[in-house]
Amino acid sequence: MTDEAIRFENVTVEAGGDEILRGVSGSVGRGRVAAIIGPSGAGKSSLLSLCNMLRSPSSGKVYVLGREVREWDVRSLRRQVGMVFQAATIFPGTVEQNLAYGLRLHGQVLSDAGSLLEDIGLSRDLLGRKAEDLSGGQKQRVALGRVLAMEPEILLLDEVTSALDVHAKQEVERTILHLHEKLRATLFWVTHDLAQAKRVADDIWFMAEGRLIEVGSTASFFAAPSSDEARAFLEQMTEEMEQ
Ligand SMILES: Nc1ncnc2c1ncn2[C@@H]1O[C@H](COP(=O)(O)OP(=O)(O)OP(=O)(O)O)[C@@H](O)[C@H]1O
């Protein structure tokens, strides 16, 4: 059994005639929280989507839990690698039906929706409520709960709090970290919010123009990034926050 949750080996992705990822190599250790940051269009979401085969590399290799993604059965891969997006995915029906949806696709039933709901910080009273009537933060927690019901080894998070207000953002963030503690899942987390990256991540992956420019521990990255690109990015983000 490998200690690596995810490994990229010289991965390039072409789309629409452009290279949107160029020669990316790196790995995320099991149980780690790695935040991917960088300017808009850097390729952060594209990198995430290689990990559950929403996208395939044009060249190079992607390994998940020690096995190359092309060797995985896609259904099994997506069971092990859950993904949550910026806009909470909510289906018509009750909260309970929404929580059970992922397992149902795998022919399984959710045995204890009530305790799952408590795990994601929501009251059991909401089980029978129409999911569409929930607040933005509650919907995002239901989307998380649906993925977590499958007990994934890896959770891919793509800007999951950026559509939420400050209060809901903090609650969803706390819920994710609580579940990380509980399940020991590996988190690979794209965020535009540098303060969030600092709070949640063990490691920072800094990307720009389709390249992985540097990877470092969160403390060392924010104290002294080693690349000019990352230094310029941090300065620009700090200026924007001060305006
Ligand atoms: N299917 C596609 N065809 C052509 N170009 C694409 C396609 N998907 C993504 N791109 C381009 O690839 C680049 C990287 O996109 P990606 O969404 O991965 O970046 P990102 O760092 O997540 O950006 P953001 O922070 O704005 O979400 C962008 O320039 C985007 O326009």
TrEMBL record:
Question: Does Amino-acid biosynthesis appear among the keywords?
Answer: no
| CDD domains linked | ABC_PstB_phosphate_transporter
Q: GO: which molecular function terms? A: ATP binding
Per the record's keyword annotation, is Transmembrane included, yes or no?
A: no
What keywords would UniProt list here?
ATP-binding, Nucleotide-binding, Transport
Q: Which residues form the ABC transporter domain?
A: 6-234
Name-wise, this protein is: Phosphate ABC transporter ATP-binding protein
Tell me what organism the protein belongs to.
Answer: Alicyclobacillus dauci
